[in-house]
Amino acid sequence: MTRNDTPGTAGTPEDEHDLRISGGTVVSAFTGEEFAADVLVRGETISGVVPPGTPAAARAHLDATGLLVAPGFVDAHMHIESSFLTPRTFAAVTLARGTTTVLADPHEIVNVAGAEAMRWMIEEGRGTAQTQLWGVPSCVPAVRGLEHSGADLGADDVAAMLRWPGVVALGEVMDYRAVVGGEPRMRGVVGVAREHGALLDGHCPNLSGAELSAYMAQGIDSDHTKNRTEVVLEKARLGMLMMLQEKCLLPEVVEALLALPQLPPLCLVTDDLAADHIVRAGHLDHIGRVAVRAGLPPAAALRAMTWTPAQRLRLYDRGVVAPGKRADLVLLRGALGDFDPAVVLAGGRVVARNGAPEPESGEGVRREGGAGSAAGGPAAGGPLTGTVRAASPGPEDFRWLVDLPDGEHTFRAMRTNPRDTYTEAVEIVLPVAGGEVRWEGRAALVRVHNRYGRQGTVFAPLLGPDLAPGAVATTYAHDSHNLLTIGTSPAAMAAATAQVVADGGGVAVVHGDGATAARLPLPVGGVMSPAAADEVAAGAREVRSALEEWGWRHLNPFMSVSTLTLAVSPSLKITDMSLVDVARRDPVTATV
């Protein structure tokens, strides 16, 4: 950015603009057209979109020659905790990729520590250049009666939190079976949100027919989950806003949407992206590229990242490059469908260049006791540290003891797949001797142990991945974030779990029977790190690599592991209380 010292420009000092962006090609999120224009900015607002060279005085000049000028990206559904970063650090790294506005649903950390955790998240994000809006988690715990989390929110709690500044929505209503079935607690939570006039975000994979109607009749009008193509069309046909994350962006889905007489409104969303993915591949810009590769026209992808989500969030001041709108802008290199940010402006101020925060912006700069600091203190985690209340285990804690006679017995097992988070219920025959299931060499074992000082330990066999000797343990386990361990031997499982407990929460991978191959400490609620983004990304990358080397191969290994405990995600899940048949919303026994 340079001073504008051009003589003879029109306008008095009172009429002077703060910034002129010249030489670029503006992209209209309304029409999909690209046209040459200069963009004028005064304060936080676009004060003009004018033909190139139109006289207008400006205090500073930004040369956008060869660049596309597009609206800042708006992410209408995501979870900051899934990045493993605190809100301030998250803002820095994602602003640099063009994401200027997010609606964050903090249901991970609120399940750990309740309303005060959400208040902490809001305060941590306050003052960043990124607009961070918030949804009150609707399911804390995700399924009451089938798991224990660190908090329990009812309708009165939700009603109070909806009145907080910056809170605009009820977070995704994951317990869709409870809504459809008329369960009083969920109907109460949804009811107070409707009374408040909040947005109601949905989560209802493959819900269809009369059940979908019953769900939507409660005012829940969006869905970001993976659905069969015919269900995507059914939901869109009924006016449910489809929010497409990476796993939803299949060519057949895009082709079916484009074949409709009219393309319905769509939002591209990130949902859950870890720090290493954001640093390496991008944030919402990455989802845009995925959508284009799947067949969505670049202009339609841009609209789904800007105008439509802005309208969804009732942010009528952004989402298009136009006079009077907020000057959240992304200057893109190359073709539109590359979604390659060169310069990012938020509120008329340059906050990032070439994928990195501007030093003078203050975003992501370490501050004493701050989110980018390891110094401790309230802003580095405060009341959200020390939340893992579990003893360091030994191998004996991973003996699966049962009240069954000696002999072979048929057990329920969970089978994963390398594509998504669906877990199939299957059967496996295992021997029992002396009251202990002899599972080693026949299956991997999953153990969930309550981390909040309650009693509760549940085991289940796991099939699917071809695992070498080793284990993974984590407190990042949706949504109650109890202590989850998967392994091939009690020794390896004990070693991985002990490392996570010592770290105050996080992820640890052990190869063999005891050597830690990788670890990612997450001492803030057991789900986030106070460290800088690059440090967290490096740890996440090492864990991802160690999981793949162990044999856990998946498009998103973090989500594949951590959603084994998500009792609202089909079809067989495990909590600290039992195995759960998600479709029936019932606990089921270990034996068949």
Automatic annotation (TrEMBL):
<dbReference type="InterPro" id="IPR026912">
    <property type="entry name" value="Adenine_deam_C"/>
</dbReference>
<feature type="domain" description="Amidohydrolase-related">
    <location>
        <begin position="69"/>
        <end position="351"/>
    </location>
</feature>
<keyword id="KW-0378">Hydrolase</keyword>
<feature type="compositionally biased region" description="Gly residues">
    <location>
        <begin position="370"/>
        <end position="384"/>
    </location>
</feature>
<protein>
    <recommendedName>
        <fullName>Adenine deaminase</fullName>
        <ecNumber>3.5.4.2</ecNumber>
    </recommendedName>
</protein>
<comment type="similarity">
    <text>Belongs to the metallo-dependent hydrolases superfamily. Adenine deaminase family.</text>
</comment>
<feature type="region of interest" description="Disordered">
    <location>
        <begin position="353"/>
        <end position="392"/>
    </location>
</feature>
<dbReference type="InterPro" id="IPR006679">
    <property type="entry name" value="Adenine_deam"/>
</dbReference>
<dbReference type="Pfam" id="PF01979">
    <property type="entry name" value="Amidohydro_1"/>
</dbReference>
<dbReference type="InterPro" id="IPR011059">
    <property type="entry name" value="Metal-dep_hydrolase_composite"/>
</dbReference>
<feature type="domain" description="Adenine deaminase C-terminal">
    <location>
        <begin position="421"/>
        <end position="584"/>
    </location>
</feature>
<dbReference type="InterPro" id="IPR032466">
    <property type="entry name" value="Metal_Hydrolase"/>
</dbReference>
<dbReference type="GO" id="GO:0000034">
    <property type="term" value="F:adenine deaminase activity"/>
</dbReference>
<dbReference type="InterPro" id="IPR006680">
    <property type="entry name" value="Amidohydro-rel"/>
</dbReference>
<dbReference type="GO" id="GO:0006146">
    <property type="term" value="P:adenine catabolic process"/>
</dbReference>
<dbReference type="Pfam" id="PF13382">
    <property type="entry name" value="Adenine_deam_C"/>
</dbReference>
<keyword id="KW-0464">Manganese</keyword>
